[in-house]
Design goal:
By secondary structure, the protein is an alpha+beta fold. The protein is 42% helix and 9% strand. About 6% of the residues have low confidence.
Amino acid sequence: MASAVTEAAEVAEAAEEAKPAAKAPQAAKPPAPEPEPERLQPIIVKKIIVEEGHAGAHGGAWKIALADMMTAMMAFFLLMWLLGATDEDKRKSVADYFRPASHSQIVFGELAGSNGLFGGKSIIDTEGFPFTAKQTALLERLTPQAQGGPSANDAGAEQGEAGESGEGAKKYERQLQDKQNFEAIQKSVQKKLESSAQLQSLKDQVSFTMDKDGLRIDVLDKADFSMFQLGTSEPTPQAAALLREIGKSISDAPNKVSVRGHTDSLGFAQDTGRSNWTLSTERADATRRLLQSAGVSNGRFARIEGVAETEPFIKQNPADPRNRRVSITLLNQ
């Protein structure tokens, strides 16, 4: 019994001794980590540029932009003012003035004075305004003589303006009629030249031009063909037939007719007593007789004239055969 107790005590002591030995590995601390090397912070360099004199704010770019804007505003103001200060006829005249010459309805030579775009009045004339005052504050300062719009005393002036408007409308109708007549005559002559076996070879010698006076029909000579016998006013058979066909095409038009003869720079001998002036005039009169025989009444002829070689068709070569020609002009009404 006593031995058993002793053995138990020895076992208990051995167990107590073994506990610290078992716990020893658990209590051991791991070695402390080595400190990391200190990281270097980046060096930031800030460059500051100081502009002297504030050039950005005091430069010239903004002045150009402002000038463009002010120009556009002024142009718009003038456009609105002109639209309010002109009537339909005047605006139509302004539009016709800027059209190409071949499409314009304006009769050249009537662009100034009482026949001009504004009927002899200035666009800044106070009488050209639709109302003499009470339109805007600006007009009240410009035209202080009136206190209101049109009154009963202005009836006569309004009737006069209405008469001018009616006259402008009639003039526009005449111009439109002329344009239609000229186009129809040109097509008629060209069709006859193409359909006639006798005249087909001459179609390149007939030229149509719209100028300030009206429709001009030029009948030209060539190096191998002449409309008149050399140095005379006697037309060849082909030229006579051509001029008669032109006369038939223009016989029904209401327009006056002008005939002008031209020659080249080759002249006569001094002892003949003749000149290019007499020759061109004689050929113009011979053309008149042929047109009259084709149906153009004598009262429609406004001018028959010869200008010799002073108006060459080929300006670079006054001796060119094409300078010998006859110009038949249907005048504007």
